[in-house]
Write a structure and sequence with these properties.
The structure is a homodimer of 211-residue chains. Chain A is an all-alpha fold and 211 residues long. Chain A has helices spanning 10-29, 37-44, 48-54, 58-79, 91-102, 104-111, 118-138, 149-169, 176-196. Chain A has 9 helices and no strands. The longest helix of chain A has 22 residues, at 58-79. Chain A binds a DNA duplex (30 and 30 nucleotides) through residues 9-12, 15, 36-38, 46-50, 52-53.
DNA sequence: GTTTTAATCAACAGTGTGTTGATAAATAAA
DNA sequence: TTTATTTATCAACACACTGTTGATTAAAAC
């Protein structure tokens, strides 16, 4: 959800912009972990104390900066008045992937070793490996998948991870079983389709039974 | 994929176990960010230099420790010989959610402010907010969803995030449009089902058209 | 019982931290 | 334009953590 703010003091805007730019520039040249507040303020040509007037940590600055970029992206997405029904419309997704491709170097750093997204990425990849192995073990071999199994596994793993985080943050409002059922339902009917091509959606579910 | 290792020197096993336990204990009592190597080795009653004989950073230790837990979980999952067809079977998912519930305090820290998973979590939540808004705007209001929209949004956001990471790591082997189409396909047929209840899967897709 | 490997200890120089109070400069409000 | 408010600067501070060193002791493997 795009953040809407009141106009701030011009110096504040300038300083925050400079800090954000400095961080993104540094990210391209050195390990994220190794970047210090001192580095950032040096790069931005600002006093180190100034940093603490605006942000409490590197991560806070990074989040604020990323969210600005995201907001721009969302505006682009909203500008697209797609007359297509939304389930035939991949414009939004395409814009996201294009955006990431545009800033690939930066995003790659974020999920790389020492990056802020590294641990989450590793966890998701771990889940994905398990899922991929499961699919390969249980899938009827004759079926040719429309989407590579590794991608399907990432899809499932990402979904699972996000649901887990949501569940934790919301203080576990459902039982594990309920969550498992909902996760399973949401994922399955997507991945099954991906495995078997679209037409089967018109057939009863039981056709999947014969392996 | 569970990691299988050769038997190590007993001292090595003991040290790594102690370090892992120390980190997990500390995580429950203080901000992850604020935990230093010194803290960890103090808690584990080991010399600080010993840490560096095994791990290069806090994150490395954390990942190794988490993966051990995951491996245990996967073993549990494999032990379940489920005769159910896997698309009616939520045992694996349930085990995951139960595992997280069991260690909720720790996992909550990991995705909280200052935690290693914080930024990824925030990014996913940002995407989820956009998705939720989109669904609410475009969904036929008469339809009563089988799964809360917020959960559906998390599902889609997590999937998108994971696919983005995979795509980056694999050096973008598909075009943005191809990725968007696959992401869209995998997600849509899951979330649509979630919105409309299962029986519609037997109907042609076009019934979704009339809003 | 011998050899190999691991943990300990103290010490090191270096770097980054977060905060301080006073000062100067830029901006907003009148 | 003038006045009042807010922001950035600077230097300095005490402190904690880092990552690595070489020599020593202890434990485990063979």
């Amino acid at each position: 959800m795009p953040t809407s703010k009141k106009p701030l003091d011009r110096r504040v805007r300038r300083t925050r912009r400079l800090l954000g730019e400095a961080l993104l520039e540094l990210i391209l040249t050195q390990d994220y972990d190794s970047i210090s507040i001192t580095d950032i303020t040096n790069q931005a040509d600002l006093n180190r104390a100034t940093f603490y007037l605006h942000f409490g940590s590197k991560e806070e600055l990074l989040m604020a900066t990323l969210e600005e970029r995201f907001d721009e992206l969302v505006q682009e997405m909203e500008a697209q008045n797609d007359d297509q029904p939304f389930w035939h419309d991949w414009t939004s997704d395409r814009l996201i992937f294009e955006h990431v491709a545009e800033h690939a170097t930066m995003y790659r750093v974020l999920i790389g070793e020492g990056g802020v997204g590294y641990v989450a990425h590793r966890i998701i990849s771990y889940i994905a490996e398990v899922v991929a192995a499961e699919i390969r073990a249980e899938k009827p071999t004759a079926v040719e998948e429309a989407i590579p199994i590794d991608l399907i596994a990432q899809h499932v793993a990402g979904s699972t991870y996000a649901l887990l985080c949501w569940w934790l943050q919301e203080d576990m409002p459902y039982t594990p079983l309920e969550m498992a059922q909902m996760a399973q339902k949401m994922c399955f009917h997507g991945t099954m389709w991906a495995l078997m091509e679209m037409q089967v959606i018109n057939e009863p579910l039981e056709i999947y039974l014969e392996k």
